[in-house]
Design a protein that fits this description.
homodimer, 409 residues, alpha/beta, Carbamate kinase, VC0802-like, 6-stranded antiparallel β-sheet, 20 strands
Chain lengths: 409, 409
Amino acid sequence: MSLLVQKYGGTSVGNPERICNVARRVIETQRAGHRVVVVVSAMSGVTDGLIKLAQEVSPAPSERDMDVLLATGEQTTIALLAMAIHAQGVPALSLTGAQAGIVTDGVHTKAKIANITPRQLLRALDDGQVVIVAGFQGQTMAGQVTTLGRGGSDLTAIALASAVGADLCQIFTDVDGVYTCDPRLVPNARRLDDLSYEEMLEMASSGSKVMQSRSVEFAKKFGVKFEVRSSFNDNPGTMITEETASMENVVIRGVSVEKNQAKVTVEGVPDRPGTAAAVFNALAGARVVIDMIVQNVSVHGATDISFTLNQADLSTAEAALRPVVEKISAVKTTARAGVAKLSVVGIGMRSHSGVAARLFDCLARGGVNIQMITTSEIKIAVIIEEANVAEAARLAHDAFGLEHGPYTV
Amino acid sequence: MSLLVQKYGGTSVGNPERICNVARRVIETQRAGHRVVVVVSAMSGVTDGLIKLAQEVSPAPSERDMDVLLATGEQTTIALLAMAIHAQGVPALSLTGAQAGIVTDGVHTKAKIANITPRQLLRALDDGQVVIVAGFQGQTMAGQVTTLGRGGSDLTAIALASAVGADLCQIFTDVDGVYTCDPRLVPNARRLDDLSYEEMLEMASSGSKVMQSRSVEFAKKFGVKFEVRSSFNDNPGTMITEETASMENVVIRGVSVEKNQAKVTVEGVPDRPGTAAAVFNALAGARVVIDMIVQNVSVHGATDISFTLNQADLSTAEAALRPVVEKISAVKTTARAGVAKLSVVGIGMRSHSGVAARLFDCLARGGVNIQMITTSEIKIAVIIEEANVAEAARLAHDAFGLEHGPYTV
């Protein structure tokens, strides 16, 4: 008998009929001999409706008030799912984040989980009940309602799985798992059977937004094995675990793309300590999230620092940089939106050369110009024109033969 | 400087615009020098929407699950009202029933308040904040969400007013106060300036459903002075307090009617101890709520017991009585729906004769037949055909000259 944590997202519980489907799935899991903890999101559309109401009463709602408001979304779902499970004659207990013992810090709308004391939850499991927990929410030590920010329900599931020592955490969503590339771009993309945490992180931070990096990092830190699978069919999903022996030969597992990027270059930065820090402190102060950073070796005592960011943040970034350029005696900044990032990801890459060459070669033969390059141990990422991104994804996917599964040597 | 508890019902907070109106009203009250605790209901329609969702996932939702579900309604309102007040630059703190320290017993969907420990609330008041509390809800000692049943938000307001020692509890609703009679039946009905708790109770239990008896009883028990007034204008309302000296001359304060009643008579009940108990135990077991009970002196060792009830409960009551009639050797039961109750209410009545005669006389002159009569110290109630109720209300209202205010001698 295993202990499973199952998480169902907003689309999976989007209406009463789907809630009843989730109830059936949960009950089947329990009948198969497992103990089940279910984490649910707000029904799709509910959170947006609440945000709209908030905007109608206040131009700038406080974050504490937003948390009190938004937490009702998940509370509604736990009650409805408990009813649907009870209606099948199976005992179930619904718990808010607070009742599940999820204690967070006091940073409203993006609280961090401090600890979990799931006493009531464990007692109910021992009594043979299905336990249903509201995702995305917790409470402070002082009893204030908090929410965990984007991807919060996934985090609730992963963190609970860790706290109760679950055998597996299943993230049910509206896709079948993690694919070798976005099937909308590359029609012959394949579902991956397994991935390491690191690969999942690189895929997540490279545009494969099945899950937020934050939840994957938590899973990696606490060794929570999890599966991403569909709530609309019984297909197996993608299992994310520690790197295993069988993964060793794999070089490339997927191609990930992220559109709507912009690139900024600060030209002629004097080559002395503190100049890069000045640039990125200014950006951090303006709350601009930076993705890639590239700085080449300096020539003649000055260098160019380039970085990429979401293009929605571009004007904020440019405004933040204006005083800095003068202060550090750089020459100027140049910026451009309309670029995209393409990454090839694979844990085996770190011990194999030739991957970069194969990638650059296939793009060159397709006439795709590479504007920037960065690499990590398990990823090579390039910045290209956004107009080229679908073509580039197909070229890379083909070059590594990913339609047949992971690229091995 | 007074401490006020203000309660706004579902219609008063029915949409974002109305919530902003309530915010303005609360802020005006604070600016006038008062400390304010606000109790709110769910936005009108929200509770019904949640109940509909529940019915779509389960034929018979558990009461615990219903409480978790329905409590989200008031939680939504407190967050929105806090935002609307903050938007005017006034500090406000929203609290769920649990956070306001409202501890109840564990009877889900109709919990009773056990005690209130409003520590956080009092601290916030001392800090100059407006405190907003979710009505209708509390939690058990074990941390389970409970709701207080019908009229629960009024009860939250009255109970909080008692717990914090408020100078006045203001119940804001969609009517201007308590009237001498329902203005839809008697167009020249007048708003009453004041009422005693007892009179308010008789009016409430006689169909003037401005508030549930339960909240009035609580106010009476703990001496909470409260006012019923409109949230849509600035008219003064009706003040409900202990009986005062100025009330002594008043004989009749209002006429109250309740439609959709049914009457049941158990005929030929043997005149021995235990027979009435058998009848009403059977009804209580079937959860039928009884209103009037009339039993006349027995003739020839048997008597007739009559009672009235809401006509929706009639078939349940008849089924419950069937085995009892045989068991106690009564003759039979007769039942009829389509009757109504008309009551004249006034605290001075107990020391004045002639009220009953005046009532019966005006009805007789109008051709309204009286089917049953009961009296209390401050009320005379009659059962009549429902078809006669509007005419009877006008006759009684005129007979006591209530269009000029309370009837005095």
